[in-house]
Amino acid sequence: MADGRTRILVTGAAGELGAELTLALRRRHGGENVVAVAQAPRLSERVRQSGPFETCDVRDGSRLGLLLERHRIGTVFHTAATSRERSPEVPRDADLGGLPTLLDAAREHGLVRVFISDYAAAGPAGDAAPNTETTRGCTDLAEHHARDLGLDVRGLRFPAVLSSTTSAADGAAAYVVEILCAADTSGHYPCPLPEDALLPMIYLPDCVRAALALMDAPRSSLTHPVWYDVEGLRPSVGDLVREIRRHLPGLVCSFVPDGRRAVAASWAETPDDEPARADWNWQPEYGLERVVADLIAHLVGTSSPIGQQT
User: Fold this and answer.
1) Closest by alpha carbon to 79, among 23, 127, 124?
2) 54 in Cβ contact with 42 (< 8 Å)
């Protein structure tokens, strides 16, 4: 990297994606070479103990610039405010509020490359569509810095992200978690979506793999100025229930569609990831069978009523 800037900084390191990216990057480059940054000092022990960490609001340009210089940062993975585990004090427009500061700082301090991410999914089950104005603002801003100002900015848009480390989930992934949470209560799930509704989502380990693969790709192979869509799996609700029943045959699921089916119908329009597959060989590793098995192992207790044969 230019001017001896070989270290990496990860914003949003208290969130799921930021934490897992930090750990993956430290395994690759050594713990001392990857700096974890979060707005509040609530990092996991794994992140705290495996390398340096700092507190910073990414909208604070002075503080951010200080950290970029102090640690000789050459690359930033920006995941701040993309986590669904937002602190109450973090406004929902923090992505747009922090991105201009980050991109300006990247140019001012001579960064080599910046990774940014965005959840393209709708909000939690029952919520309306995402804030398209904020999404559009992030898109235009990043593309301006890449196209007009020469900054190497690379971005991923994820569908709903599913994780085995928390029961929190957005969009399509929320229904997976709701069904599994029912495992620990009555063993019955009244599904508000029709059986054939599609659930586009991606498993967290695949998010990390996608981010690393995109940043590894030579610039010459990328046909998009900044953004790529990626997707992991797209089962129907019926497929999901049948797969869960292979492990937990006591599950009872009734389909009682309500107004949320309209939001679910919009998920089927999620852009595909063919450009990512063509440009940098994107290929998810986690299909439905593997995701369900992993989630059950981590999220469903052995005393669950649906974990027992009827």
Assistant:
1) 23
2) no
Q: Kindly tell me if the per-residue pLDDT of 26 is higher than 60.
A: yes
pTM of the model: 0.86
160-217 pLDDT, tens digit per residue, is: 889 887 656 667 888 888 888 887 677 899 999 999 999 899 999 999 999 999 999 9
The Cα angle at residue 102 between residues 98 and 106, in degrees rounded to 5:
175
Residues 6+ positions from 88 with CB-CB distance below 8 Å: none
The secondary structure element, H or E, covering residue 116 is strand 113-119
Q: Which residue has the tokens 């929902």?
A: 92
Q: How far apart are the C-alpha atoms of 124 and 172, rounded to whole Å? A: 8
Give dist(CA 30, CA 71) in Å, integer: 14
Query: Secondary structure of 146-167 in the HEC alphabet?
Result: HHCCCCCEEEEEECEEECCCCC
Whether 13 contacts 38, CB under 8 Å: yes
Q: How far, in Å, CA of 233 to CA of 284, rounded?
A: 8
pLDDT tens digits, 269-280: 767 899 999 999
Per-residue exposure over 213-228, b if at least 16 CB sit within 10 Å of its own CB, e if not: bbbebeeeebeeebbb
- What is residue 127's predicted lDDT score, i.e. its pLDDT? 41
Residue 89 has pLDDT above 60, yes or no: no
Rounded CA-CA distance 144/19 in Å is 28
Which two three-digit tokens encode residue 243? Answer: 């797969």
Contact 109, 74 (CB under 8 A): no
